[in-house]
Fold this protein.
Amino acid sequence: MIANNFSNVKLISIPQVIVKTIKEYQDEIIGFVFPIYGYAPPKMVNNFLKKTKFKAEYIFAIETCGGTILSSLYNLQQQALHLGYHIDYVAHLAMVSNYLPKFDINYEIKERLPKKNVKTNLDNIISDIKNFKHNKAEVSNKDRFITFLVKIGSKLVMNGKQAQNYIIDNKCNKCATCIKVCPVYNISFKDNINKEIIFSNKCEYCMACIHLCFENALHLKMRNQQYDD
Ligand SMILES: Cc1cc2nc3c(=O)[nH]c(=O)nc-3n(C[C@H](O)[C@H](O)[C@H](O)COP(=O)(O)O)c2cc1C
Ligand code: SF4
Ligand code: SF4
């Protein structure tokens, strides 16, 4: 939707380019849009931001989130400075909280999402970007400290093997959608006869495979999380 407001936009998917050897992007405006996981960008996004050079007159970054970002935007701007570029404008956009271990997705969509004013907030962000607004994220010491603690905890939880605990029930029709949507190619069929689904050790915990399984056959082990509709 941001892209619709500009001409000659080139949309680039980080999961698709991260496996290539592109080292530099240069343009008048460059924008990053990504979700936050544990008050920080997903590992893949962080790797992309660290290993690529960006040159632009104006750079913006939008974090989609459930609603609590603590010092993630501040850390992002600091990291960019450290890497030799400027993120001129940062903002967060509260959307559906899709962290299944903690949130009931149906409640999130039906009860909490309508109160998040996503469209109005996004319109404000788009207007800011069109006006080349600058802003610097401010953060309290307390938020920085909590973010730091969560970062340590996340490293322990996000060891790449999370999906190996997922449950695949007998509704699975072997459609391979989960294999196709996984941004890190972490899912495959063990063989082409039984088509047993196996998970490797590169999981980023994005839960796209669970959310996008049309048969509702993939679940978290811890809560046997299911979609009812
Ligand atoms: C592993 C994981 C961790 C998350 N951590 C946070 C968080 O720290 N703060 C927050 O506000 N939302 C958090 N979320 C919610 C997502 O940032 C939010 O739902 C976002 O809109 C997801 O975007 P997507 O649908 O493009 O994946 C988390 C979601 C996941 C899956
Ligand atoms: S998307 Fe769901 S139904 Fe399709 S192969 Fe994966 S688990 Fe099975
Ligand atoms: S949660 Fe599923 S889709 Fe996401 S990285 Fe892990 S295996 Fe892939």
Notes: Residues 104 and 154 are 21 Å apart (CA to CA).
